[in-house]
Specification:
The model has no long low-confidence stretch (mean pLDDT 89). By secondary structure, the protein is of the alpha/beta class.
Length: 411
């Protein structure tokens, strides 16, 4: 029932055990929120299928025993309670959804929409997600012609930031996205308003550019609606991805959980514009925890829209990023950024300190004699003469009539 992209081969005789694992993981994605720590722990400790059997039939005591008494507290639980109480609440929330789950109907709907389900071990599953360890998603729902493992390769970088962006932030995000995608990279972002949308548009504008949108809700309801055309274009040309099954509405906690996927699927994360408490900062924090390089674009010091970026640079050691070369420099094995496009080297950079001292002593708008020059700076006449000869060869000064003058370009 799984849809495969055109450049991937669909196995003629699927392994029954493999398909059972796929169904179990798909079912878990329907039962548990991405941030459900108890579900993730049960899956990691027991395996997807055994954990699902417990979800269907176990008592709280049996679940507690299977997890060796370790039942994590949920951040949104009304009360921490005892491990037994937490196990009971976990079973209640799973079974509440389990009663309404129809796996066959979900798979048929996915096939109709050309949405494919990926699980660890699939050729298309990106190895970068293994860094999430026990918090890795149960499965991924992907839609589009591109292969996820190729998009989320060594040249994938996330460009993220605030929804309430400024024209400055959007311009920078679009420029960085276009330049990075044009250089063969994949721009990863969340498809939201503001910086995300600008980064995606920049990547789409680049010739042969690639971009990946990681959504917080189901792929059957593109969100935000104002970005529908943009997301449809990404779906047609590249790839949409979510760990949430179809029918799932995007919510704040799902956005926050989604951010760990953006961080993991990228080899570097750059926050382009973010306010002091922007959700984009959580992506940077998660990237740091995954040992992904983090960059931040500075903004005007008077702009509250860039306060979060300045906070990252000052408090968390984010790399200051001002142009595409510095973004490439963040990638593993990427080229050194050098001095940047604003750096300009000329003859003045080639001067020794002594020659520079002689040049600086030449008046900018009048002439001076070599002897007076020697007295002015305390050098011997022959030392001044040698320096003047070198400066004249570089075209920085001209000599005539026992007078030394600067050339017009150095005046």
């Amino acid at each position: 029932m799984t849809e495969y992209p055109e450049n991937s081969e669909k196995p003629e005789n699927p392994d029954p055990a493999r398909e059972a694992e796929r169904r179990a993981r798909l079912t878990w994605s329907l039962l548990a929120e991405p941030s459900d720590a108890v579900a993730l722990l049960a899956r990691e400790r027991l395996g997807s299928r055994a954990a699902l059997e417990l979800a269907r039939e176990a008592t709280p005591t049996e679940l507690l025993a299977a997890l060796d008494g370790q039942v994590p507290a949920e951040a949104a639980d009304p009360g921490a309670g005892t491990p037994d109480a937490r196990a009971s609440r976990a079973l209640q929330r799973w079974r509440g959804r389990l009663a309404a789950v129809d796996v066959e109907a979900v798979l048929e709907d996915a096939d109709r929409r050309r949405i494919r389900v990926l699980i660890p071990g699939d050729e298309e599953w990106p190895s970068a997600l293994d860094d999430l360890q026990e918090t890795a998603p149960h499965c991924l729902w992907v839609q589009g012609p591109a292969r996820l493992d190729r998009l989320a390769g060594e040249r994938a970088a996330a460009l993220v930031g605030s929804r309430a962006s400024t024209p400055y932030g959007e311009d920078v995000a679009s420029s960085l996205g276009a330049a990075f995608a044009g250089a063969g990279g994949t721009v990863v972002s969340g498809g939201a308003y503001g910086i995300d949308a600008a980064a995606h548009r920049g990547a789409l504008a680049a010739q042969d550019g690639a971009t990946l949108a990681v959504l917080a809700g189901g792929l059957d309801r593109l969100y935000p609606r104002g970005n529908t055309q943009l997301l449809e274009r990404i779906r047609e040309q590249h790839l949409l991805l979510s760990e949430a099954p179809m029918g799932t509405a995007p919510t704040r906690w799902r956005f926050l959980a989604r951010n760990r996927l953006i961080a993991a699927l990228s080899r570097a994360v750059v926050v382009v514009e973010a306010a002091w408490r922007s959700g984009a900062l959580s992506t940077a924090r998660l990237a740091d925890q995954l040992s992904r390089p983090v960059g931040a674009v500075p903004g005007p010091v008077t702009s509250a829209a860039s306060a979060g970026c300045h906070r990252l640079i000052r408090e968390r050691g984010a790399v200051l990023v001002t142009e595409p070369a510095e973004l490439l420099d963040l990638l593993p094995g990427g080229p050194a950024a050098g001095e940047g496009s604003f750096a300009r080297q000329d003859e003045l950079d080639l001067l020794s300190p002594a020659d520079r001292r002689v040049l600086d002593a030449v008046p900018p708008r009048s002439g001076i004699s070599p002897g007076r020059l020697a007295d002015e700076i305390g050098f011997a006449p022959r030392e001044v003469g040698a320096a003047l000869a070198r400066l004249e060869l570089l075209g920085l000064i001209e000599q005539g009539g026992q007078r030394v003058r600067r050339t017009r370009r150095t005046g």
